[in-house]
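Render this sequence as a predicted structure.
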Amino acid sequence: MKRTGTLLLAAAMITPPITASAQKFDDLAKTPQMGWNSWNRFACNIDEKLIRETADAMVKTGLKDAGYQYINIDDCWHGARDAHGDIQPDPQRFPNGIKAVADYVHARGLKLGIYSDVGATTCGGRPGSRGHEYQDAQTYAAWGVDYLKYDWCDSKNINAVGAYTTMRDALRAANRPILFSICEWGDNKPWEWAPEVGHSWRTTGDIYPCWDCEMSHGSWSALGVLRILDKQAGLRKYSGPGHWNDMDMLEVGMGMSEIEDRAHFSIWAMMDSPLILGNDLRSMPAATHKIVANRAVIAINQDPLGVQALRFYNQGSVELWAKPMANDEWALMILNRGEAPLAYRYDWQQHSIGDDLSKRDADFKKTRYTWVDAWSGKTGDTAHRLDVTVPAHGVVLLRLKKQGDPT
């Protein structure tokens, strides 16, 4: 969520202990969550008609069958609190209430997400949950909400661990399994404490739909795809089933080139980031649909081993990333950060891949792998040199399957 002013970090509040009696719902997000969120495309211009139509579009376009399941309402759904302090939806935007929207979404085999904030006000100036955490959690449960994105605006003098732990405990007390998405922008190193609190946590500020740029808003900046990727260094050890590094919502179909969109989607898949779409599903061009519905790429993201990719080679504009996968498989991504197409040759026999984190390795001299290009469908094996052209701002993404002795 876009910040509206300078927010200072503080530790004035006492952090409550994380106790075994109030754990998050452990059976959620065993693979990175997949869905859609209203903010990137619509910001505050939302209503129940949009949410219903988006749910219909997710089913009609086949995205539900591809694995997407959450329809998430972001900021600005809020009305005022009533005389009892219970939060109410905006009566003009959601005249039938959130429960009616949740019922509509559920009837289509999907799940509904909602948004709130640790502060007294949200980033959009609506009522936040500070002082109402348990009350709001009970309300969300009664409405049938399945996902909570919890933001970090209006957070001066609020301790992050305490604030997010309080809402985790409130969700647990409400006794409805709700995926807890921590949107704290990486300000307080959430990877060090959030695995016990939420199911994912933002590692950076907001994304911006560009390849390699920074868009300043004065007190904060939105970041392009490569800027966010570079900030993931050192974080892969914190990610895994039920607790994911969140690189922010996807900007596919939001202004970058088709090649950049493919690379963006591939990077998020390799890094086990949640795949939360931000485009208008109701009017999605065929090229955008082809990217976000690519089941070969989605399968890399949803691999049950849940190990984030590592960069094992870096020279000039080219980077090689490897992701260990279940059943002794691997995904390999060749990333061209540069401004010109790259003719790249990779002699498998001269290289091996080792990963201390997963205790996995691939020795191509001893073992042959077949590979499939996740975007083109082209096939090959590691007994033969790889010759590919990687477009500028693009990737080649391969899935490798173990075959046995190379001879």
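Summary. The chain has a mean pLDDT of 94. The first strand starts at residue 34 and ends at 37.
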